[in-house]
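Re: the request from the purification team.
They wanted to know what the chain is likely to look like in 3D before they choose a buffer screen. I agreed to run a prediction and write the result into the notebook, where they can find it.
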Amino acid sequence: MKNQRLAASMVFLICGLPATPSLADIAIAIAGPMKGQFAEFGAQMQAGAEQAVSDINAAGGVNGEPLVLEVADDACDAETAVAVANQMIGRGVRFVAGHFCFSASIAASEVYADAGIIEISPATTLPKYTDERPGGGIFRLAPRDDQQAKLAGRLLAEEFGGARVALLHDKTAYGKGLVDAVKAEMNERGKTESMSFGFDAGAEDYRSLVSQLALENIGAVYLGGYHPEAGLIKLEMKRQGLNAALISGDALMTEEYALVAGETADGTLLTYPENPRDMPSAQALVKTLEEMGKPAERYALTTYAAVQAWAQAAEATGGTAYRDVAAALSDGTFETVLGAVSFDQNGDSNVPAYVWYEWRDGEPRKR
């Protein structure tokens, strides 16, 4: 069985409210990167989930029963995510808001589908997550990578049609998948890249990589990857005097990118869904979280909305039975901090479309 791939040597963190809920409680969970380089995203998820549980319980719970929350660290790792998912089965969890990284989300989704646990990822954008979902209870509250790739491919073909373009990726499924989709869209529009290659994530020195770009007189770099490497590459571009545009995806929508790249972050372009913080429906929650000193960024809001959607579906069915709640999520519309949310036959949501942002004066601003 897929859900039996639990390695005894796996190390992961499970914390939260009581390990064994009372019979009147409904156990739900969040799972994501609570430690390490992506911990800021896990902190956002935790803040949103905790506030959602608090607000729902204050309003009477779900079908009159209170929610209890488990918080699990999957280290953005597939094997650890499987271990976490198996642990959630043992804890009687009915719903998981998670995971964050695509590899963890996809691996865990097989366990959840086998066990009859609803999963709504507030962050996973890889199309495969829902295109190949193992069951009808797997959903996402994040836009698909192929949507942002279309936007980026069009920009490179139209605004950088006369420039030499380099396509770089960090060899992860996220980074390479995004670059492959951008390439396909750009090529379809008649623009061909001048060079394309993968680089090793986690390096501290990208002088050789940037030297290759400079030798090829690259005018625009599309990078599929995350903020630590993107920031270091942007710094090295500045050091070597390479005046090329750096363009990337939603993973650069974090202040950590500016902490790495410093002033050189300015001018970086990225695709990202319209910021949930700007939505009228989210203003009260943003204020509450900020007053408590908690993160009120995107994944806090999408995680809050994921809990809301599941809770409303459970209310509509009068229980937490997997098939009933999955059907309700597939067929219904739910009022959330992101506005009215619905899911299509794939489990994809109608979240805001990708738009362009540009880093200016140390922060990303809508272009």
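For the purification team: Residues 146-275+354-366 form a domain with the Rossmann fold fold (CATH 3.40.50.2300).
Please add any questions underneath this entry.
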